[in-house]
Structure formats: C-alpha cells, structure tokens
Amino acid sequence: MEPTPDYHRQFTVQLETEVTGWYNSFCNLLKSQREYVQVLNRWVQLTDWLVDGQQESNFLSIVQHLCEHWQFGMDHLPDKVAADAIKSFLFVIHSIVLQQADELLLQKKSERLEKKLQREIDLLNEMEKKFESNATGDEKTKYLSSVQLSRSMTLKNLRTSLPNVFQALTVFWSMCAQAV
C-alpha cells in the first residue's frame, strides 16, 4: 500500500482552509444580510411617521410591507442547518488532516527506524538480525495499518458528509428563493 502523497496532504489542508473560509463567509453573509434588512425595515418605519401626503403614505406602506416580508423570510431561513452541515463537513476534513499527519509521523518514524536497523543489521550476527527484523516488521505493520486507515477514513467520511452538505444547502437556497 502506498503512503498518502505530500500533494494529497497539501490539498486536504487547502480544502480545510477553503471550507473554513466558506463557513465563515456564509455565517457573516447571513448576519450582515439580517442586520441590513432589520435596519432598512426600521428606517422605513421611521420615515412613515414623517410623511404628510396620502399617496406617499401608500407608497411607504407598500415598501414597509415588502421590508417586513423580507425580514420575515430572512428570519425563517434554515441557515442553522446549512451552517451546521458545512461545519460538520469541516470537522470531517479536519479529522482527515489529523489522520494524514499521524500517518506522516509514523512514516518518518518508520523510515528512521529502518535506516537505523539497517546499519545495525550489518554489524550483528544472525541471531541479532532475526530479532531486529521482527521489530522492523512490527513497526512496518503499524505504518501500513495507518496508511490503510487514512485511505478508508478519507473515502468513508467524504462519502457520508458531502451529500448532507449539498442537501442542506439545496434546502437553504430553495428557501432563500422563496423568501425573496
């Protein structure tokens, strides 16, 4: 089994960075949008008190109704579900990053041990060679198990979490379209 390549680890870290940015931008966008709609709604309500003419009052009443409808739509968006789905996906990616880091540490440790043992094997008699060979095999087995765990964990977690993210976002954007 081949170890996880460096570029794969780098892409996973980059994916974690991008999803973190996506999550933060998503939350900030909704917060800013809500604040904007609340301020606009409040401003329209305050200007309604200043109008003298009936025609202007009717126009402001329509604008006020539109702002209230917009604010109601914003207040009832399933943004928490969508944000939680993105955050859950981020945790999955983070666990993959940690597993790949553990794999790399074990790989380096295994390589160091192999080099050290190779030097010593040349100096030892047949009995010592056999003993050290078993130690190398044990560490190599741990390393190969870690590689296999990284691969299966990556595939499993991505297969299970990505559909949830896209489903939550589909519902969210559908509600957004209906709210506007």
From TrEMBL:
Domain of life: Eukaryota
InterPro entries: DUF632
A Pfam family recorded for this sequence: DUF632
This protein's UniProt keywords: Coiled coil
Tagged with keyword Coiled coil: yes
Annotated ranges, domain DUF632: 2-94
Parts forming coiled coils: 107-134
Protein name (record): DUF632 domain-containing protein
